[in-house]
Amino acid sequence: MTRQPVSAEIRRQILHEAGYRCANPICRMVLAINIHHLDAVSKGGGNGAENLIALCPNCHTLHHLDRITHESLRTWKLLLLSLNQAFDRKTIDILLALGRIQKITLRGEGMLEIAALISSGLVDWKQCHTDVFDIMLSKKGTIFVQAWTSGRLEEAVSAGGLGDAEHSRQS
Q1: Quick one: pLDDT at residue 163?
Q2: What average pLDDT does the structure give for the chain?
């Protein structure tokens, strides 16, 4: 099969899906992004959005060196699609940041920005003062973020309450 260039519209869709960042939740590089085929064109993969993922040049190279697995790429793609339906970009970034820094302190109005994370059970909060709150990942959130960043689909889907992974694959 002759490899055709990815259309500008599909490219924009893939970049938007990943928030114009590397789809690797540990990386999230913004300066240079490649569009990678999950299934190679030479093996029947096409240029449709379902077969493409945004990767920075470093993560793209690490994948081709087998340091980032195909399963991890598929996991990141699926979870990005799911998370984009549930949360805005800022909320997704807060979720990933909490996985790295353990705790964020917010004033009352900041609680509204993370309301979706609180209601989903992915974060817990503790009131420190009248209008000051410490925000941290819940047990469920910790399991979800660790599984997501490690590319473990079954565990991430189960912890995140995104539904039965087996059922999701069959749908």
Answers
A1: 52
A2: 89
